[in-house]
Amino acid sequence: MATGSYRIEADLNGRGSLLLRYAAPQAFFPIAGKMIPWFGALAIIFAVAGLYVGFFVAPTDAQQGESYRVIFIHVPAAWMSMFLYVIMAGWAALGLILNTRLSGMMASALAPTGAMFTFIALWTGALWGKPTWGTWWVWDARLTSELILLFLYFGFIALTNAIDDPRRADRAGALLAIVGVINIPIIYFSVQWWNTLHQGASVSLTRAPSMAATMLTGMMLMALAAWMYSIATALWRVRSIIVERERDAEWVQGRKGQE
Amino acid sequence: MNWGSLDNFLAMGGYGVYVWGSYAVTALCIAAELWLLAQRARRAERSR
Known about the structure:
The complex is a heterodimer. In chain A, 73% of the residues lie in helices and 0% in strands. Chain A is mainly alpha-helical. Chain A has a single domain (26-203, 211-247), classed as Four Helix Bundle (Hemerythrin (Met), subunit A), CATH 1.20.120. In chain A, helix 4 packs across helix 7 (166-180) and helix 5 (101-133) packs antiparallel against helix 6 (141-162). Helix content of chain B is 79%, strand content 0%. Chain B starts with 5 loop residues before the first helix and ends with a helix. Chain B is built from 2 helices and no strands. The longest helix of chain B is centred in the middle third of the chain and has 32 residues, at 16-47. The A-B interface holds A 55-60, 65-67, 69-70, 73-74, 77, 112-113, 116, 119-120, 123-124, 127-128, 130-131, 229, 233, 236-237, 239-240, 243-244, 247, 252-253, 256 and B 1, 3, 9, 12-15, 17-19, 21-23, 25-26, 29-30, 33-34, 36-37, 40-41, 43-45, 47-48.
């Protein structure tokens, strides 16, 4: 590896800024490893609490009966699908601007988890739509833009995998990710901008939530679990990416047999 | 929320297929992702 051009990133003596110091893959690698079990444990704790509240505390919905309990997965998954895309595009943009190696790796590490949550949002939406709307799927604005989000994730993964040089792959993927960000406000506001079958937001920053407090608590706990899970999986994946990309570097060779 | 019996809990008021279909596929996706992550980590460690 060309160590000279990464002097700032690799400056581990404490003289560089904190951000740049931990932006060096070899500095981030052990930190990520230490954080994974904590975020994993938090994900399990929040999920157990969320499922308990969701199934044993939250009451039956007056209109939808028990079918509404899909919400405890559906809404957190849909939120994560959008959050992770924005964070992915943010890392990608940071990589374009600062040319830091770790940024592109983080973007690549987030994409599969984002795609998974997008699929889960669509799947649980279909299973919730059937009993409440009478159909698995409609080509309305909310559902269609969420499907486009899934294709954006697939496109990003396919594009970055198709280019052999990782740094060129990062740049190409970054462009796609950044352009695709336009889809996020479209998803979010679709229920206001167009006449859709999908209901409006039950939770917003400006109004009191239009659902029972215990339902909301269960949903928020599951959303926290989804956050912790996403952080744990992204960190786990980025560790593999770091090793894959820098396997010839001295520091990777040096830790052979350790940990 | 008191379900009374396991049968009632599994039936989900007649919506069991939809509710459990959602949770089962989500659990499957998570299991698959964790398995793939473990595989990738093992492959990365072995190849270096």
